[in-house]
Amino acid sequence: MSDTGRVAGKVVLITGAARGQGRNHARRLAAEGADIVAVDLCADIDSVPYPMATEKDLAETVEQVEALDRRIVPIRADVRDPSAMASAVERAIAEFGHLDVVIAQAAVSALGEELTNQSWVDTVDINLLGVINTIHAAYPRLQPGASIIAVGSLVALRPRRAYDEAGPGSAGYKYAKLAVAQYIHELATTLAPHMIRANAIHPTNVDSPMLQNESTYRQFRRDLPNPTREDAEKHFPIVHAMPVPYATPDEISHAVVYLASDESRLVTGMQLRVDAGGYLKVNAFHP
Question: Rounded CA gap, 79 and 126, in Å?
């Protein structure tokens, strides 16, 4: 990975930064010259059927960024709490003096017909309200040239299908990610005159703990009582036009770095799909 300074001097706040896509974004942006504010809850959520990131995970993100000779401030905060996010933004300003890029990455995927409606509530609170809380806390501190990036999902852009039905958490996930897409469209329209950009990235399956867990395996292989990762990965490509099981975190971070950099200074309101043709497989062309 080469350092070409594409975001040199920028300060980037990332939620969900302790592991998975969030950690990868932090590492990639640091390699390109950014300093990082890494926000994560670092605690389990009862309605989510897989372990969440830990304080140890967040410490590993810190080590990886510092190894690239960049500064990083780790913050434990819950994106569901507006005051916590406001405090995180103020900490970023206190440490660095400015904030240039906001990446709302934090999300959960609570799949399973056996889950209660609390999984719907928690999924919407994190995946939608968490995005809004993060961006609204940061917005007053952003200057012209700033970039807002929300991470949505291919799920938001696909019509319902039988294999998408996986309990209340799944329904909450689709609703939240679809709402994020519309929110970014309207936000970008509002902020454009101020030269502040807002874009959404919609990944397909990504090789991260959100995908690689037993609850997800069971949704893809309902024909098996205890499917393994190998069993599920045989069916992951079903959602794609390209014959691949998932995207790597790096493949999403490529898009993040572009949207964070000045290379995309005239790109706003974009619904950028990194989806191996998953949208094309089930949608007609819309001008």
Answer: 6
- What does pTM read for this prediction? 0.95
And the tokens for 106?
């934090």
Residue % of the chain over a pLDDT of 70: 97
Nearest by Cα to 127 from 160, 150, 102, 157: 150
Count of residues for the chain?
A: 287
pLDDT level of residue 164 (50, 70, 90 thresholds): low
Q: Give CA–CA dist 235/227, Å, rounded.
A: 11
52-61, 152-161, 170-179, 208-217: segment of lowest average pLDDT: 152-161
Rounded distance between C-alpha atoms, residue 221 and residue 228, angstroms: 9
The average pLDDT across 200-204 equals 98
Catalytic hit among 50, 139, 163, 173: 173
Q: Is 183 a catalytic residue?
A: no
Q: By mean pLDDT, which of 10-24, 182-196, 224-238 is the weakest?
A: 224-238
* pLDDT for res 165: 64
Q: Are 173 and 123 in contact (CB under 8 A)?
A: yes
